Amino acid sequence: MSQSDTVKRILDAAEVLFAEKGFAETSLRAITSRAGVNLAAVNYHFGSKEALIQAVFERYLTPFCQALDAKLEELEGESRNGGEVPLEKLLLLASRLALGSHGDEPRRAMIFFRLSGQAYSQPQDHLRAWLREHYGPVFRRFLALLRRAVPDVPPMELFWRVHFSLGAVIFTLSGMESLQAISKKDFNQTVTATHITQQLLPFVAGGIRGGG
Amino acid sequence: MSQSDTVKRILDAAEVLFAEKGFAETSLRAITSRAGVNLAAVNYHFGSKEALIQAVFERYLTPFCQALDAKLEELEGESRNGGEVPLEKLLLLASRLALGSHGDEPRRAMIFFRLSGQAYSQPQDHLRAWLREHYGPVFRRFLALLRRAVPDVPPMELFWRVHFSLGAVIFTLSGMESLQAISKKDFNQTVTATHITQQLLPFVAGGIRGGG
DNA sequence: GCTAGTTTAAAACGTCTGTTTTCAGGCGTG
DNA sequence: CACGCCTGAAAACAGACGTTTTAAACTAGC
Predict the structure, then answer these.
(1) How far, in Å, CA of B37 to CA of B9, rounded?
(2) Does residue A45 contact residue A28 with C-beta atoms inside 8 Å?
């Protein structure tokens, strides 16, 4: 029982509340109250609030990155004895994994995108540095495949365009509730995460190829 | 003297500190201390911390939106008796105004982009609703011109792609310091705001046109 | 049954927060 | 001069916060 019930309930509650209100605005008391556990349990199991935040990210990101890493290895094998991996295939892979690597529950993916948005706009370096250190290799691996998919885009421009794409994804999906309201009002159309992802793919593909 | 010296100094300090550390993490004491004014001055002049945040946005956004509005009216006049406004021209206009509508000081623009990032990831509705209410018309005006620049993109897809672009811009520019460090390490190239904007334009143009 | 690890309950700690108040002076306008 | 507005200094307020502590239960494994 490496993962006791209390730990899991704390992580679940923290995940939702951090996404809803942000890190600083979410108190440990709110978390433990929602989780139905004792206030002291957080510091008992995690040591500090900061460590809890990292644990929330780790629980989500590790399975996703492992899945992505495995798929990328597959693709590298395919592309070694054959043609390059097309851009659309790479993007589709990432999006499918991001939305579906946790038991087909896009709502959790949505929560996590909000979390990522908060993490990135958070100017404290701890978290960002930690993320880069732990998940940088997978990112670079993905970038390498991408580079071969669009060889006419100079490496540095590609670097920036990938970050632009990340911005588009995280920003949009983390502000989705408000955008949903507008979309419903202006176009009378409800919007789901998978729907947005479908809209995102041509945008990102077009952006990475560049439209001068 | 509608704008006393104290008010200006508070706004200046708040702008920088909010961008650096976020809203919740910046105390009124830090602001007044940096501004060299009394703690009570904030509540005296603005009424509350929330009102101060809005004031910071207002001071920056109002001149920018006025300038944008004027330029858009120009363009509407041109396009009425003539062809459409090309997409690149619209994007270039917006970017130039965003960077230069405050006396050619891109550093302030950068600060403000960080601010916008914080505002958008902030889930409290007040600020977002307030921004939408005050600056929605200009945004819709810009969108209308955009629609005519890319008539083959369905309105709803265009709506989303504009938000994707916003995300790319705000996300990238609000996390620029960290990205600068990576870029310098990997490509040995220093990066300025104008430089990023140049990189952004083809990405956004390609994304909005869509690259299926 | 003893022991070690969990969990709860409750209270307290010190600190920081936004906000308010009080008192004092400064400044220009009528 | 007197009045109103701005500013400064200082203190206090009540509340929330992260964290720690103490004590008493529970729950397994040896």
Answers:
(1) 8
(2) no
Other CB atoms within 10 A of residue A65 CB: 18
Q: Which amino acid type is present at position B110? A: M
Tell me which H or E stretch contains B208. helix B193-209
Please write down the HEC assignment for all residues of A12-74. HHHHHHHHHHCCCCCCHHHHHHHHCCCCHHHHHHCCCHHHHHHHHHHHHHHHHHHHHHHHHHH
| Range among A54-58, A101-105, A182-186 rated most confident | A54-58
Report the gap between the CA of B4 and the closest CA in chain A (Å).
31
- A168/B168 CB distance under 8 A: yes
Q: Give how far Cα B38 sits from Cα of B7, B9, B181, Å.
A: 11, 11, 37
Q: What are A145-190's pLDDT values in tens digits? A: 999 999 999 999 999 999 999 999 988 887 777 777 777 888 887 7
On the CB side of B135, CA atoms within 13 Å amount to 18
Residues 6+ away with beta carbon under 8 Å from A6? A35, A37, A41, A45
CB contact under 8 A, B211 and A212: no
Which residues of chain A from 24 to 63 reach within 8 Å of chain B, CB to CB? 24-25
CA atoms within 13 A on the CB side of A76: 13
Task: Give, as one character, the DSSP assignment of residue A188.
Answer: -
| pLDDT score recorded for residue A3 | 55
